[in-house]
Amino acid sequence: MENHTMDSTMKVSSLNCIDLTNDDLHHSVVSLKQACLDCGFFYVINHGIKEEFMDDVFEQSKNFFALPVEEKMKVLRNEKHRGYTPVLDEILDPENQLHGDHKEGYYIGIEVPKDDPHRDMPFYGPNPWPDADVLPKWRETMEEYHQEALRVSKAIARLLALALDLDVDYFDRTEMLGKPIATMRLLHYQGISDPSKGIYACGAHSDYGMMTLLATDGVMGLQICKDKNAKPQKWEYVPPIKGAFIVNLGDMLERWSNGFFKSTLHRVLGNGQERYSIPFFVEPNHDCLVECLPTCTSESDLPKYPPIKCSAYLTQRYKETHAELSIYNQQT
Ligand code: OGA
Ligand code: NI
User: Where does the record place the Fe2OG dioxygenase domain (predicted)?
Assistant: First the structure.
């Protein structure tokens, strides 16, 4: 376990900032590409989601986590990874963590009605929702945010396509982001982390999917490690910028791009203040075959990873990091 010194942990990272309203497309693509080759973390501003609406989403998130635990357990996560995840449910870095993450969460995916032919696919299906009498307008707010974040994700994916020398609409096709897996997660962190004791708000990990759009409140906590093999590892804080998303690429895009674009290790340290964040995880369609993109291979750069179906890859990754549901003795 690592030594927690001020010097190594207070370093602040400076990331490129992509302005979605910038008319100079070439500039945006160059800046994005540089960020993706370097660490895969960047800010996105002027995304069109209003600040008052964001405040509303965070307020509703707080309202949920403030409910008594019995009420929250009524919407405990199901086998489709929807719903409430209690404190310590997830363990992202078992090698360095004493026990699970000091956070609770709530997963919301794409709403697939009971009579939809695709409802049986993993990561699809109806969402559980808290009782509307207990949290009025909660579902509407979250569904609107889900839609908005997906719109922004698609705009970023178009820039990513250009940065990868692909057609601008490459990721828009049905088997990719036309019918994606996209899951938002409300998170609530509490407590003080102590890396020397293996206690983390969120253990070190890289995200599994294509990309993640992270909205946070103003509380510091997120750190990245650009070189996971360095000894000792160097962690830098990523400060929140009001109104900006912190966007990071996931392992699936690293694979897809043959390792050119980076998915970087990150974690969250708690400083005793409560902290709320909302990651939005973007993955292509279940059936999408994630195999080396045509522009990322050449005679000297043969594909490094075997092709894998998106849903198979994700299922495996979730299984590795979440507790078995049976431990909750769920009553049906
Ligand atoms: C995650 C994550 C960071 C944060 O949920 O994958 O990295 O600030 N979250 O909550
Ligand atoms: Ni993450």
Answer: 180-284
Single pTM value for the model = 0.93
> Do the Cβ atoms of 178 and 154 come closer than 8 Å?
no
Amino acid 156 reads: I
The closest residue, in CA terms, to atom 9 on ligand 1 is 279
10 Å Cβ neighbour count for 327?
Answer: 8
pLDDT tens track for 2-58: 444 444 457 898 999 999 999 999 999 999 999 999 999 999 999 999 999 999 999
* pLDDT on residue 329: 59
Pocket test for ligand 1, best of 108, 277, 281, 320 (most atoms within 8 A of CB): 277
Q: Supply the Cα-derived Rg of the chain in whole angstroms.
A: 19
| Closest listed residue to residue 32, CA positions, set 227, 247, 241 | 247
Helix (H) or strand (E) run with residue 308 in it: strand 308-309
- Residues around the ion ligand 2 (C-beta < 5 A): 207
> Residue 222 pairs with which residues in a beta bridge?
268
Query: How buried is residue 39: exposed, middle or buried, by Cβ count under 10 Å (0-12/13-18/19+)?
Result: buried
What tokens does 48 get?
């069109």
Nearest listed ligand to the Cα of residue 264? 2
Contact status, residue 186 vs residue 61, Cβ threshold 8 Å: yes
Whether the CB-CB separation of 18 and 223 falls below 8 Å is answered with no
Find out whether 218 and 240 touch, Cβ atoms under 8 Å.
yes
